[in-house]
Specification:
rod-shaped, about 70% helix, two-stranded parallel ribbon, 4 strands, mainly alpha, about 130 residues
Length: about 130
């Protein structure tokens, strides 16, 4: 408790515990989902023309790309939120590792989706 000069009053600063960033958690979940969707793209790409592989792989590539980009954007926003300094009564955010993992998983999922689409097109043509 700090005394306010010239008055009989005092100021109390409450210690607010740090909170894990929701954006970081969402980024990691979306990144893992992007990797899962990219596995579907590979599966449909390998299935080939018998099961409409290129069309299905293309549809899942769009979904995987959207989820991957969302994971990357959420990870970047989470990193900015975590780095932002907070004055003592404000909430501090943690979860920098989760944000980096979400960024990585989102980027890998996006890359694997595009590689899977390329594989599906090669299998479709041959």
């Amino acid at each position: 408790m700090d005394a306010v000069p010239g008055t009989p009053f005092g100021v109390v600063h409450l210690d607010v515990p740090p909170v894990t960033s929701g954006l970081a958690i969402g980024s990691l979940i979306a990144g893992i989902a992007a990797i899962g969707v990219s596995l579907l793209v590979f599966c449909f790409g390998i299935a080939g023309p018998d099961y409409g592989g290129a069309w299905a792989a293309g549809a899942f590539t769009v979904l995987g790309a959207l989820i991957g980009v969302g994971a990357v954007v959420a990870g970047l926003l989470a990193r900015r939120q975590i780095r932002r300094p907070a004055p003592p009564p404000a909430v501090r955010f943690t979860g920098a590792g989760l944000a980096v993992a979400g960024l990585s998983c989102g980027g890998v999922g996006l890359l694997f989706s595009l590689i899977g689409l390329g594989l599906a097109l090669v299998v479709q043509i041959t």
